[in-house]
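If you are new to this repository, start here. Below is one unmodified record pulled from the training split, so you can see the exact layout before writing a loader.
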Amino acid sequence: IYKTVICLLCWIWRLRTVSYTHLDVYKRQEIDSALHYPNHSNNDETLFLKAARKELSRILFSVMEFNKSVLEIPSLKQAAKSGLKSFFSSNDLIAHRADQYKSIKSMQGHWWEDMLDFQSGTGESESLHEVNTLLEKSQYLMHSAKNMKDISHNLDELKTSGNDYLFQFYSELKSRYNPIYDKLLTQFYNPTDINNNAYWELLKIEEGKIYEDLKLKVSQLLIDDKISQLDAPSIMNVLREIYNSHIALINSYLIN
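And here is the target side for that same chain:
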């Protein structure tokens, strides 16, 4: 029995290690490679701006993962968990989202300090233009995360509602928005269209169509007396904030 227990524990450890191999490589190469800088105001401006762009990409990725967590669309971290790996992870989604949002605010706070410090120490018009562009992108990202954070409790209520129609609507909402994040992440990894404004404008149109379709769905549920008059305004607010969050994300790509 003792040998069997030892073998089982070794197998569990092996499973945990293998299940995170791809994610660990991704984090090391794509996220943790972002340069951290305490103060580069007096250093080469090209190196500073390169570091700033990398850190902003890290914030962008974190915002997308946070938004997906609020919508309970599987994230990269969740996709990497399988089998007994999930046994070792926390199931407190509310606490997890709070930690994610706190981390995003911390990352952006440090980033803004460095950017403003650099801005005050450079006289190059081209560098100042890029700094202003990056700051504007960052503002859109925080708007996106905050819009999603503000409705996270409403989505939790939808998910746990005893009304089958509300739960079905919640499930449809998730499935409709999943492709949007697929397209956003595709550009994160393969930015062939990163400066193609037409691509992002089309994505805005697609986002708007989803928003209008879901609003019509809510109106019909109300007309059919399948949801209450108290539920409808709350759901409409959720849809509006999700729309605003996604448009802010897309706008962060549009700024050049």
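Two things worth knowing about this chain: The chain is about 80% helix and 0% strand. Residues 11-38, 79-88 have pLDDT under 50 and may be disordered.
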